[in-house]
Amino acid sequence: MTYHILKYTDSSLPDFLISEVKKRGEFAEKKALNADELKQAYEETDILLVSGGTIITKDTYDKFKNVKMIADFGVGYDGIDVNEAIKRNIFISHTPNVLNDDVANTAVALLMNTTRQMIEAQKFIERKDWENGAVMPLGVSFTGLKVGIAGLGRIGKEIAARLEAFKCDIAYFAHGKKDVSYKFFASLSDMASWCDALIIAMPSTKETFHCVNEEILQKLGPNGFLVNIARGALVDTDALIKALDNKIIAGAGLDVFEQEPKVPQELFNRPNVVLTPHIGSATTYTRMEMAKLVLANIDAFIAGKNLITKVPGTRDS
Fold this sequence. Notes:
Layout: E1 4-7, H1 15-22, E2 26-29, H2 35-44, E3 47-51, H3 58-63, E4 69-73, H4 82-87, E5 91-93, H5 100-115, H6 118-126, E6 146-150, H7 154-165, E7 169-173, E8 183-185, H8 188-194, E9 197-200, H9 214-220, E10 225-228, H10 237-245, E11 251-254, E12 273-275, H11 284-303
Parallel strand pairs: 1-2, 1-3, 3-4, 4-5, 6-7, 6-9, 7-8, 9-10, 10-11, 11-12
Helix pairs in contact: 1-11, 5-7, 8-9
């Protein structure tokens, strides 16, 4: 059987991945198809190749009548209607674990860059403030810093492990206690009141939408820092901008945003805000490992075997 594989995301994917996918069937990219070709793709496509953030709704499934598998180049699948896929017996794979280290490293880098004002320090030099006798404001030490991690899954645990080396006091918020020594909070609000820095590492769901809101930011307080490496939808952007304007919190480090790739200008050019363009897993090594895992899942599907990393709740084989 010849499989028809459609790259359904406009995001760039590694050349290695595209080259290897082409060896596994007839390959096309949605953005390169005209109206007639797209109509044909709706009828023929067996496998959709997507990336984190790709939106797949019931209407999408209705168009792609023969889709049997969705291969997600990413750990997140919040844009995919998983329940509808389950109803239709569609396989869904994603790429967990292989990006844990780099995302955790990004979280710590954002926290350090924000608390120690690294970007502002470079601007301080470039503006010749130092040369002209100005004094750089003091930063915040990691030693003894109380860090609350919202979501202690695979990535959250890796973040905590790194922060231990910096002698931070670590706590976490989750729906239940984990087998760890860190302080546990059953309430995000209570943890925000306790911590000096709040790191968001939870999945994006209906329940977690805007979980960091005006109330949480008030609890975090004027000496508190926010870091988000999860999904933009978890933070109420308007509330965050208001909190920064009014010095309700001390600063923020953000790798994800609500309307990516659009980022509100109100977040720009703030000495206490560090922004990165969703690069948590953006290293050569990790992207290659993600590509290999996508291919392993596609190969398992084609061979009629269990997927290597299926999305929880979806079919195995």
